[in-house]
Amino acid sequence: MAGVSNFESGHTDMVHDAQLDYYGRRLATCSSDRTVKVFDIVGDHHTHLADLRGHEGPVWQVCWGHPKYGSILASCSFDHRVIIWKEGQGNQWQQAYITPGNLHTASVNSICWAPYELGLILACASSDGSVSLLEYKADGTWETTKLPGGHSVGCTAVSWAPAHAPGSLVTSKQQPAGPVKRLVTSGCDNLVKVWTHSDLGWRDGDSLPGHSDWVRDVAWAPSLGLPKNTIASAGQDGQVFVYGELPSGGWDKRLVHDFKVPVWRVSWSTTGSILAVSDGSNAVTLWKESMDGVWQQITQ
């Protein structure tokens, strides 16, 4: 968010998430005050555009859809629901879809739009342990599906894999035909789980152990500059791991750092080469893998 100075959001309670859209021109924020706010960002200036009301509890996350599908924003809340908002004419926002009351029976903690090549699909992770998918169909309706299984205690985060295999844009090697549907989830069962979609539907393939407490966040790296699938995880145990998929199957695990305090969020740069970590001491640090495979902090 270079060029954007601190500003008063207007929320009346704690702000839990802030996300720029694809072009970096709009900012969405969400709060325990049950509202989502949308701002226009130009240089150092921001203009408040809209307050989106509809949730009945704290709103944990917001996520912008790809502009191919118009101006679409999703939000998830402690009230067990996900709302998908669509902008109409004159900055008028409407609820395009709200999940049925029986889809999740506890807080929805994390949402993530699939790569646009896969269609308009939102993955949702809930404290009830399950992961749901909301998919926009050609007839204008939304279809909901639940992934089988899930996490035994609660699901904390979800992240999609890139639609194309790592290196497929720069290599002539034989690659899987068409886009790939995979995602990763984290849970209060101390596990990271990788899910793959095939002709038989969704299945959870690899469980990636390593954490000794709740896994708070998980992020699949963009494949733009990477030779292999890479996942980062952040734990209540203070540890951040990076998992790399092996050509023979399975994943190798490397400890990025033990922060000695709970780690809340991990996020990748657009090339997948730099990992940002937000920890319980209110610090945000940047990490990069050295040539010999050791993760080192980038001093700013």
TrEMBL record:
Example of a GO biological process term: COPII-coated vesicle budding
Transmembrane portions of the chain: none
Q: Keywords on this record?
A: mRNA transport, Nuclear pore complex, Nucleus, Protein transport, Repeat, Translocation, Transport, WD repeat
Primary location recorded for the protein, binned into one broad class: nucleus
Q: Which PANTHER family has this protein been placed in?
A: NUCLEAR PORE COMPLEX PROTEIN SEC13 / SEH1 FAMILY MEMBER (PTHR11024), PROTEIN SEC13 HOMOLOG (PTHR11024:SF2)
Family classification: Belongs to the WD repeat SEC13 family.
Q: What is this protein called?
A: Protein SEC13
Q: Which organism is it from?
A: Tetrabaena socialis
Traced from the root, the source organism's taxonomic lineage reads: Eukaryota, Viridiplantae, Chlorophyta, core chlorophytes, Chlorophyceae
